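As a warm-up, study this chain.
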Amino acid sequence: MRQPDIEIYLKDADQDAVTAWLNEALGPCTPWQQRGQTYKCRAGDIPVTWLPKAVGKWHSLFLESDATPWEDDLGCAHAAHAALGVEIRCAPGGWDEEQGEEDADRWIKVSAEGEQEFIWRTD
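Now compare it with the structure written out below.
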């Protein structure tokens, strides 16, 4: 089932490299507009939010649309890793508060070693 939006975390990724990837994957990016700690743009028709160092060295990339080329966060994570060569983390599917705190800490990492589920305590 297609997710309503996409969010991935990129380790030490360069914003210019991410912009180049978004240009290729989604369409031309508008210039980034800084709003507080976040940056926003549109890649094609998709609103994008970039939050540098959202969790330590991890940057958050949030695509606010279900019209991306990817069904879910994991599909996007694989594409981002292939394009950028950095470790990517994402949730293993949609999550809501009813699932409990333990499930909130379940993540998948995509790296040169492949795909692996792990516990990531971000608080």
